[in-house]
Each structure stands twice: as C-alpha cells, then as structure tokens.
Design brief:
Main location: cytoplasm
InterPro entries: Ribosome_recyc_fac, Ribosome_recyc_fac_dom, RRF_sf
Helix content: 55-70%
Strand order of the largest sheet: 3-4-6-5
Function: Responsible for the release of ribosomes from messenger RNA at the termination of protein biosynthesis. May increase the efficiency of translation by recycling ribosomes from one round of translation to another.
Number of domains: 2
Order of helices and strands: HEEEEHEEHH
CATH topology of the largest domain: Topoisomerase I, Chain A, domain 4
CATH class of the largest domain: Mainly Alpha
Pfam families: RRF
Radius of gyration: 22 Å
Family: Belongs to the RRF family.
Number of strands: 6
Shape: elongated
C-alpha cells in the first residue's frame, strides 16, 4: 500500500512536469515551432479535427511554418481555423500551401514571455507540492490505522520528499531552458 502511494505520487509529479513542457511549447519564441498549432481545430466535413491530423506541418526556414493540407479542398477551412485561433499570426495562402511567418519578438515581449514562463513553472511546482502533501497525509493515515510503523512513515516521507525535490529540479530545468530560448536574440 505504501509503495502504491509513492508510485502514484511520482506519476502525478511526472505528469505535472510533462504538462509544463506542453504549456511552454505553446509559447512562441520568435522561431518556428509546430507545437504552437497543436490547439488549432479545423472543421472537416462538420467534425472538429486537430490541424496536425489533416495537414503536414513543416519548418522550411527558422521563422516559417508551412502547412500542406492532405485534402487541398480544405485549404480555406485551415486558413480560417488558424485565423480564428489564438496563434496571433496571419496565414499566407498561395492555393496549395499556407505559410505562417513568425515575427521577430521585441525585447519587451521577450521579457513578458519570460515572466509567463516563470509563472507557469511556479504553478507546476505548486501542483507538485500539493501532490507531496496528499501523499504525506495518506502515509500518516496509514500509520494512525496501524498499517505501517513510525519508522516506515519516516522512510516513506523521505522518499516522497526526494521525488518532490527531483520533480522541482526537472521543472526548474524545463523553465530555464525555455527562458534561455526566449531571451536568445
């Protein structure tokens, strides 16, 4: 039972770090990154479909995303979906492909995005700490019920704390990498 609590806590902490990675992937850093289009949904014959399932997304140059729909008749729908999304880039349609030119970020915007990265990282750390708290409470309940000894409780708490420290280090590394990417000109 005690191992199950630790395993669940580690899994949840890993998911918090993965979620941070996904959230930070949505922040565009002045260079082309296909993940900024992950949330774009295109109405494909009446069904909302993720853009990456109905078009190939390539990066021919550092600041250009090229979208080639598999079904050429859907190019207008794809363009419309990109314009309606929160990507913030106007697509250029030449009839066969859509190009998104990623604008260069200003210094002020870079610093603003770096603050957003720190805020997202802090939210991920809070999630990890809440997971730690829940695991510690579960261990204490087991100890009160007599399922584990006080020594087992202390050992389990140390293991949870170690997992928490590792997750927070991973979150800090992810955030630092994204900040570095943002502040790089």
């Amino acid at each position: 039972m005690a191992d199950k609590i630790l395993t669940e806590a580690k899994d949840k902490m890993k998911k918090a770090a993965e979620n941070l990675q996904r959230e930070l992937g949505q922040i565009r850093a002045g260079r082309a990154n296909a993940s900024i289009l992950d949330r774009v949904m295109v109405t494909y014959y009446g069904v909302p479909t993720p853009l990456n399932q109905m078009a190939s997304i390539t990066i021919p140059e550092a600041r250009i995303l090229m979208i080639t729909p598999f079904d050429k008749t859907m190019i207008q729908e794809v363009e419309k979906a990109i314009m309606q999304s929160d990507v913030g880039i106007t697509p250029a349609n030449d009839g066969t492909v859509i190009r998104l030119v990623i604008p260069q970020l200003t210094e002020e915007r870079r610093k603003e995005l770096a603050k957003d990265v720190k805020k997202e990282a802090e939210n991920a750390k809070i999630a990890v700490r809440n997971i730690r708290r829940d695991a510690m409470e579960a261990y204490k309940k087991q100890e009160k019920a007599g399922d584990i000894t006080e020594d087992d409780l202390r050992e389990s708490e140390k293991e949870v704390q170690t997992a928490t420290d590792n997750s927070i280090k991973e979150i800090d590394a992810i955030a630092a990498e994204k900040e570095q990417e943002l502040l790089e000109v």
